[in-house]
Amino acid sequence: MIEEEIDGLDARIVDYFDVIAGTSTGGLIVAMITAPAIANPTRPIYAAKDLAPFYIQHSPNIFPRSRRDNIANSLNNLLGGPKYDGRYLNSLTKRTLGNITIKQALTGAVIPTFDIKRLQPVIFTTYDVRYIKKQ
């Protein structure tokens, strides 16, 4: 990677951006590349080069292909229900990131999502937890 050639093998995306955003599994990517490592809390747990192997390994379980695309599933999708149940992604996130919160992100982070139960958008940001909550 170019940044490694310029800044060495320890170069990470958080070193170059003030804010990183992602929605859906892009939110997981944001969390992975901005979350501090336990062994070295000034550096992220994952580098960009770790993302493709991670998704190759886990995407079949994050996005399972249902052999039973039946009427009930189709109706659920039409009514705005989630396409995937999210259980695997939830457990994977807990295993991958533990109890790390967005407040600990090594750079600004924005993760827009949607609350299916309340039918409204929810935006997680480092700005909210670092600045607005203090006021």
UniProtKB/TrEMBL annotation:
<keyword id="KW-0413">Isomerase</keyword>
<dbReference type="GO" id="GO:0016042">
    <property type="term" value="P:lipid catabolic process"/>
</dbReference>
<comment type="similarity">
    <text>Belongs to the patatin family.</text>
</comment>
<dbReference type="GO" id="GO:0047372">
    <property type="term" value="F:monoacylglycerol lipase activity"/>
</dbReference>
<dbReference type="GO" id="GO:0016853">
    <property type="term" value="F:isomerase activity"/>
</dbReference>
<protein>
    <recommendedName>
        <fullName>Patatin</fullName>
        <ecNumber>3.1.1.-</ecNumber>
    </recommendedName>
</protein>
<dbReference type="InterPro" id="IPR002641">
    <property type="entry name" value="PNPLA_dom"/>
</dbReference>
<comment type="function">
    <text>Lipolytic acyl hydrolase (LAH).</text>
</comment>
<keyword id="KW-0442">Lipid degradation</keyword>
<keyword id="KW-0378">Hydrolase</keyword>
<feature type="domain" description="PNPLA">
    <location>
        <begin position="1"/>
        <end position="135"/>
    </location>
</feature>
<feature type="short sequence motif" description="GXSXG">
    <location>
        <begin position="22"/>
        <end position="26"/>
    </location>
</feature>
<keyword id="KW-0443">Lipid metabolism</keyword>
<dbReference type="InterPro" id="IPR016035">
    <property type="entry name" value="Acyl_Trfase/lysoPLipase"/>
</dbReference>
<dbReference type="GO" id="GO:0004620">
    <property type="term" value="F:phospholipase activity"/>
</dbReference>
<dbReference type="Pfam" id="PF01734">
    <property type="entry name" value="Patatin"/>
</dbReference>
